[in-house]
Design a protein that fits this description.
By secondary structure, this protein is an alpha/beta fold. The protein has helices spanning 7-13, 33-39, 43-46, 61-68, 132-151, 165-178, 194-203, 223-237, 261-270, 294-298, 315-327, 339-347, 353-367, 380-389, 401-419, 424-431, 435-444, 450-454; strands at 19-22, 28-31, 81-88, 93-106, 109-116, 184-187, 213-217, 246-251, 275-281, 301-304, 336-337, 372-373. A five-stranded antiparallel sheet has the order 2-1-5-4-3, covered by helices on one side. A five-stranded parallel sheet has the order 7-8-9-6-10, sandwiched between helices.
Length: 455
């Protein structure tokens, strides 16, 4: 359905109150001149866009407006809502309340008429959703929006979400790295986002177009291939006269052959200003077995990414971020999580860190039927952890957390192997981890030896 030039549309354009109309798929069908004036965005840029419920990371103004004006998912199920909307301007923000009015299209489909107040809000009133769960989910959505607005700018920290002290320190060091040509060493467990951080440092320079980002798999490639890649990288960019900075990214730097130390030391000290080196490792530097000076050369700036279990306060916002990323492409939107679902997530050990949380949210999103994800939508392994944790001894003896959590993980792995009749692929699927990771954990717990893995 499209609005064409007619007496009706001409009349609608004379209305001083900003308003717009969405169909049942959240596609913008019409907006009036008053909305264009308020948002600073022309109707031609907005008509046909999907207004998905998400905290957008787009730098395109029309896409940012579409995300800022998106209705809460329950509106499409027939619930009226009044929400505070925020539009970013060059030097300020405009905040206005808007009524989201469901329009019945069919018994199972609702369009939405959105009526925006004519003036900015002078006082921020508490939202009045139907349930406390909706209120909590809305607050988490708005916290994510606020966080991403504060982080907006030339730094591309799309997934560096978190208010914990450890993540604040990571962002401070990352900003220092962006403004420097010094080598950077990123340390962290598997799944903590080391490659994403390396990419954010590289692209955070604000170059348009950006320089090359060249990753090297140090654990897979042999010495000859690593050497030839380094030489080719230096030769390709050393005479370039632009300000673009190119990055050589060494993954699993602890696996570098010791004989490459002179070459990399020379690269760091003698490379031109448009080339930089970023390395990453899952191992603490005191566990590296190659050249003892590698960590010093590679880590003029060293950034340690904390495991997710050490930043539990960040889990709700991270989970909301992953949920809203699914909203960008899914037809049926989700608004957030119930409090019991978040409790399960916060208490879970997350051996796979952020990557496991992302996968877990995706599973729950696909399973859920309501606008909020509940505890029953979460994979069974999450609930199994709670069952195991309930077996804590009743005495007052102190519990050593790390061994206790490892015992829970081992029990879950053994249970999955039993359910899968010792089929490793099926067990990995039940646990929600990759088959190689399962083998690493089996070796760690002494449930399989290294020779079996190699064979």
């Amino acid at each position: 359905m499209k609005f064409r030039s007619s007496k009706l549309t001409r009349f609608l354009q004379t209305i001083q109150q900003p308003f717009f109309l969405l169909d049942g798929n959240a596609t913008l069908l019409f907006c009036n001149h008053a909305l264009e004036e308020w948002t600073g965005c022309q109707a031609e840029q907005l008509i046909g866009l999907l207004f998905r419920y998400r905290a957008s990371t787009s730098r395109q103004k029309h896409e940012m407006i579409a995300a800022a004006l998106a209705p809460p998912p329950e509106v499409f199920q027939g619930q009226h809502r009044r929400i505070l909307l925020t539009i970013d301007r060059v030097t300020s923000q405009s905040r206005r309340y808007a009524d989201f009015v469901p329009l019945s299209i069919s018994p199972n489909s609702h369009g939405v008429l959105v009526l925006v107040d004519q003036s900015d809000a002078t006082a921020i009133l508490p939202e009045r959703p139907e349930t406390a769960e909706q209120q909590a989910a809305l607050e988490l959505h708005q916290a994510l929006l606020s966080f991403r607005r504060r982080q907006a700018g030339r730094f591309q920290w799309e997934r560096m979400i978190g208010v914990s002290p450890s993540m604040q320190r990571v962002r401070r060091l990352a900003r220092l790295a962006v403004d420097s040509t010094a080598s950077v060493l990123i340390l962290g467990e598997s799944g903590t986002g080391k490659e994403h951080l390396a990419s954010a440092i590289h692209y955070g320079q604000g170059n348009d177009p950006p320089g090359a980002f060249v990753p090297i798999e140090c654990q897979i490639l042999g010495q000859e291939l690593i050497t030839s890649t380094i030489y080719a990288f230096r030769k390709r960019f050393q005479r370039e006269e632009t300000s673009r900075r190119h990055t050589l990214f060494l993954k699993d730097a602890d696996a570098l052959p010791e004989t490459l130390y002179p070459l990399l030391a020379e690269f760091v000290t003698a490379s031109s200003a448009n080339q930089r080196l970023i390395a990453a490792s899952t191992l603490a530097t005191d566990h590296w077995t190659n050249h003892e000076s590698f960590p010093i050369v590679l880590g003029t700036i060293t950034i340690e990414l904390p495991p997710l279990r050490q930043r539990k306060d960040d889990i709700p916002m991270l989970a909301q971020m992953f949920l809203e990323e699914h909203n960008e492409t899914a037809n049926r939107q989700r608004g957030g999580f119930t409090s019991d679902a978040l409790d399960f997530l916060v208490q879970y050990y997350f051996p796979g860190n952020i990557e496991e949380l992302e996968q877990l949210v995706g599973e729950a999103y696909r399973k859920s039927e309501a606008t909020l994800i509940t505890a029953s939508d979460l994979p069974v392994r999450i609930r199994n952890v709670w069952e195991a944790a309930a077996q804590v001894p009743a005495d007052n003896k102190p519990i050593e957390l790390e061994p206790f959590l490892q015992n829970i993980e081992k029990e879950l792995i053994e249970r999955a192997l039993h359910l899968a009749d010792n089929n490793k692929s099926k067990a990995a699927e039940l646990l929600g981890i990759t088959r190689p990771r399962l083998y690493r954990r089996l070796e760690f717990f002494g449930l399989i030896d290294s020779e079996t893995i190699e064979n």
